[in-house]
Amino acid sequence: MTSTIPNLHLGEQSAELMRPGASRETAARSTNLVGEVFPRVDFYAIDELLSDEERAIRDKVRDFVDREVIPIIGPYWERAEFPWELVPKIAELGIVGGALRGYGCPGLSPLADGLIAAELARGDASVSTWIGVHSGLAMGSIYVGGNEEQKRHWLPQMARMEKLGAFGLTEPLRGSDASHIETTARRDGNSYVLNGAKRWIGLGHLADVVVVWARDLDNDGKVAGFLVEKGTPGVEAHLMAGKMALRSLGNADLTFTDARIPAENRLGNTNSFRETAIVLTMTRYGVACAALGNAMACYEATLAYATRREQFGKPIAGHQLIQQKLVWMLNEITAMQLICWRLGTLMAQGKMTAEQASLAKLNHSTKARKIAAEARDIMGGNGILLDNLVIRHFNDAEAIYSYEGTAEVQTLVVGRKITGIQAFA
Ligand SMILES: Cc1cc2nc3c(=O)[nH]c(=O)nc-3n(C[C@H](O)[C@H](O)[C@H](O)COP(=O)(O)OP(=O)(O)OC[C@H]3O[C@@H](n4cnc5c(N)ncnc54)[C@H](O)[C@@H]3O)c2cc1C
C-alpha cells in the first residue's frame, strides 16, 4: 500500500487520536482507519430482537472480524491474494454450515446465519463471499440435493473446512439465464462424462470439490448436480484476471473436456433446476445480509471520519449537507436491518418465499452500492485510499450487486409474483 501514514496497531492509533491535546495536525493526517473499532449502528435496538444465543454468536464473529480480518485484509485485497491464514481461524469459530442441521454442521438459526454473513461482510465482502460459496452454495447444494451417503461423506469435513467447496452454475454464454445451461453429463458405465464450461466460479481453482450443474443426458437433459473433485483429468481451471471487486476471492473459468467422474458423484436428489433454485433462494438471503454488512461498514467508518475531519472551521459532520447524507444512510441501513431480521424469522418458520429473498437481495445490494458511493464521497480524496476502508467496500458492492442474480433478474422474479406474468423473455 502507498500510505504515508504508518499502519499503526489498533490500540496505538486510537489512543493517539483520542489523547487529550493530540494536535489537530495529527488528527487531520491520521486517516488510516484500519483497525479502529467504530460504534455499531443499531438505531432501532434490533439487538433486543435477537435471542441470547444469536447475540452471542454475532458478538463472537464481530470480535473475530475486528481482531483478525480488518487489520490484515487490505493488502490481500490489493494483491488479489486469497487469505489462507483465515481458513483455520474461521473453521475454529464453528460457524461453517450455518443453519444446516446434522452432519457436523452447527444448526444455527437462519437469523444467526444472516448476522454472521453481515458481520463477515462488514469486515470484508471477499471473506463473506467465499464463506457464502463454500458454506451456503456448495454445502447447501449437497444438503439439498445429496443422498445420505454424500451428505455423510462431504458435509462434516466441509464444516471443519478440511475440504473447500465451490459452486459451478454460470457459464460463459449463460449468466442470468442460468436455467438454460449447456454443460452436459452423459452416463458411461460407472462414470459420468462431463463436457462444457463454467465461468465466474468463486474458489473454482482452489476448491477440493466443485458442485457442477449440468444437463443429465440420461434423464431427458434435466439439470442435475455433479461433484467434481480436484485433479479430475479433463478439468481445467484458470483464474480470471483483472477483477476489480472482491479481489481476495479468486474466480475461475472451468472447462470440462470428456471429464470422467464416478457415477456416485451425481447428487442423488437433483432432477431439475428446481433444486438449484432452492439453494439460490437460501443463499440470496445470505447475500442480502452481506450487503447490509457492507453498508454498515461504510456508514460506521464514514460517521467517525466526518466527526473528525474539519473543513471551514468545524467537523464536516457539522455541515447540513453532510448530515443529510449520513441520515439517509442510517435510514436505509435501519430498514435493511429490519428486513434481514424479518426474513431470518420467516426462514426459521419455513415460510420465506423465493420472491421475498429476491426483494431483499434487490433492495440491499442496490442500497449498499449507493451507501458505499455516498461514504466514498463524504471522505473526499481520502475515500479512495485503501487505508480508509470504504473504497474496498465500494468496489465490492459492485460485485454483490451483480452476483446471485442481478437487480433486473430479482425485479423480474418479484414482478412475476405480483402480476402473475413472467417477463424474463
Ligand atoms: C464476483 C462474482 C462472483 C460470482 N461467483 C459465482 C459462483 O461462485 N458460481 C457461479 O455459478 N456464478 C458466479 N457468478 C456469476 C453471477 O451469478 C452472474 O454474473 C450473474 O448471474 C449475472 O450474469 P452475467 O454476469 O452473465 O450477466 P448477464 O446475464 O449477461 O446480464 C447482463 C445485463 O443484462 C441484464 N439482463 C439479463 N437478462 C435480462 C432480462 N431478461 N431483462 C432485463 N435485463 C436482463 C442483467 O440484469 C445485466 O444487467 C459470480 C459473478 C461475479 C461477478
What does this structure look like?
The chain folds into 3 domains: 46-159, Acyl-CoA dehydrogenase/oxidase, N-terminal domain (Butyryl-Coa Dehydrogenase, subunit A, domain 1); 165-271, Butyryl-CoA Dehydrogenase, subunit A, domain 2, CATH 2.40.110; 274-419, Butyryl-CoA Dehydrogenase, subunit A, domain 3. It has 12 helices and 11 strands. The protein has helices spanning 10-18, 24-29, 52-79, 86-93, 110-123, 125-145, 148-159, 273-308, 320-348, 354-378, 390-402, 407-419; strands at 101-102, 105-106, 165-168, 184-188, 191-202, 209-216, 222-229, 235-239, 251-262, 310-311, 314-315. The strands form 3 sheets. Strands 3, 4, 5, 6, 7, 8 and 9 form a 7-stranded mixed β-sheet that branches. It has a two-stranded antiparallel ribbon with strand order 1-2. The radius of gyration is 22 Å and the shape is globular. Residues 1-23 have low confidence and may be disordered. Bound molecules: flavin-adenine dinucleotide (FAD). Residues 133, 167-170, 175-176, 200-202, 246, 251, 399, 402-406, 408-409, 424 line the site of flavin-adenine dinucleotide.
